[in-house]
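Weekly sync, protein design subgroup
Attendees: M.S., D.O., the rotation student, P.L. (late)

Item 1: inverse folding check
M.S. brought a backbone from last month's batch and wanted to see whether the design step gives back something sensible before we order anything. D.O. pointed out we never logged the input encoding, so this time it goes straight into the notes. Structure tokens as presented (370 positions):
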């Protein structure tokens, strides 16, 4: 009897220990920090974009943690530099999931860097959100574990309709860095031009950012009778193109997107070069966000810093409310989120439901309504 009694006691104690350990593990999980991996370009051609992403992320993390976290859980961010290299980005996704054991990931700054990460997320069970790349059907698609906070790109570029209807023009050209992003600009503008009976756009591509000679391209556009040029460029390239065009006597109307902010930030940039440019601006931030961003960093928010900021709020809530990392995707796709910047929801294709886009003029060193 004594051996039997002792055995029963041992079994009870073991069971009690397992119950207590399990309860402790659950409690630890509930109060454990929410770990977010931030895959950003801190070096390489997208470094200025990565810098802005980090600023937006840090701002959100500080606000959330000062407010007590989400459901009592603080937010931690593990940063890694993908060097604007898709191979590096793919390797870092594996590190985040197998070594750092993050709950979710904020994706990279350029679409071609994020694409392999999206592919890995599909089977990796850790969700990825990219704040700074729009969805491009057939080229930059999402899947069940990946999301982009920007809308379908063709809808965003479609804002150019009002410009094309208001301006006097005969032929439009796109000069673009070779990517799916630039190809979608050409595709959309081609549709808009044909709808207005102006024929197809002239599409000119180049393969590197910086140290370019555009004179051959300029001559081609001049001889083709182009009078509107859309520049899909960042860094020093817009200034280089305009300077070389002027030297050859080619002076069309220019349209550029938010890459103008990056061009203006380039070393030695002269704002006068871009006087009169029309800007397709999808970096529309709330006044409250711009004010607190400037107060902390003394610079204007650009390059999707506001969406990187929102991504932290959105992911923190989704992680806190989900049973496991795989369930985070379901929560993201089925909820409307409220951040300090307002409400946000994903569409059925895992893209932002609506990205505000404005047409503006760059005049006297500032942006004014078009």
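Designed sequence read out in the meeting:
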């Amino acid at each position: 009897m004594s051996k039997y009694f002792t055995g029963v006691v041992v079994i009870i104690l073991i069971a009690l220990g397992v119950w207590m350990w399990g309860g402790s593990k659950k409690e630890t999980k509930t109060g454990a920090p929410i770990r977010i991996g931030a895959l950003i370009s801190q070096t390489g051609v997208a470094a200025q974009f990565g810098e802005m992403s980090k600023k937006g992320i840090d701002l959100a993390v500080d606000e959330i943690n000062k407010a007590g976290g989400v459901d009592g859980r603080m937010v931690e961010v593990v940063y890694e530099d993908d060097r604007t290299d898709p191979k590096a980005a793919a390797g870092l996704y594996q590190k985040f999931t197998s070594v750092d054991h993050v709950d979710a990931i904020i994706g990279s700054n350029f679409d071609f860097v994020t694409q392999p990460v999206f592919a890995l997320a599909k089977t990796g069970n850790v969700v990825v959100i990219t704040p700074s790349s729009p969805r491009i059907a057939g080229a930059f698609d999402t899947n069940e574990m990946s999301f982009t906070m920007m809308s379908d790109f063709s809808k965003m570029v479609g804002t150019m309709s009002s410009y094309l209807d208001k301006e006097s023009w005969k032929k439009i050209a796109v000069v673009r860095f070779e990517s799916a992003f630039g190809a979608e600009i050409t595709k959309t503008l081609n549709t808009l031009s044909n709808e207005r009976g102006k024929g197809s756009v002239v599409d000119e591509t180049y393969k590197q950012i910086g140290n370019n000679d555009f004179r051959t391209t300029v001559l081609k556009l001049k001889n083709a009778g182009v009078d509107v040029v859309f520049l899909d460029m960042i860094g020093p390239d817009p200034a280089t193109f305009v300077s070389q065009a002027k030297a050859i006597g080619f002076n069309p109307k220019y349209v550029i997107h938010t890459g103008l902010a990056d061009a203006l930030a380039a070393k030695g940039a002269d704002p006068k070069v871009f006087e009169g440019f029309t800007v397709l601006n999808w970096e529309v931030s709330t006044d409250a966000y711009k004010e607190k961003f400037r107060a902390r960093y003394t610079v204007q928010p650009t390059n999707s810093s506001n969406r990187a900021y929102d991504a932290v709020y959105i992911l923190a809530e989704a992680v806190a409310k989900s049973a496991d990392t795989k369930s985070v995707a379901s929560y993201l796709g089925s909820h409307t989120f409220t951040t300090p910047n307002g409400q946000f929801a994903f569409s059925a294709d895992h893209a932002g439901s609506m990205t505000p886009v404005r047409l503006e003029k760059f005049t006297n060193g500032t942006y004014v309504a078009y």
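Discussion: The chain has three domains: 1-30, 32-149+285-345, 155-281. Residues 1-30 form one domain.
Action: P.L. to compare against the previous round before Friday.
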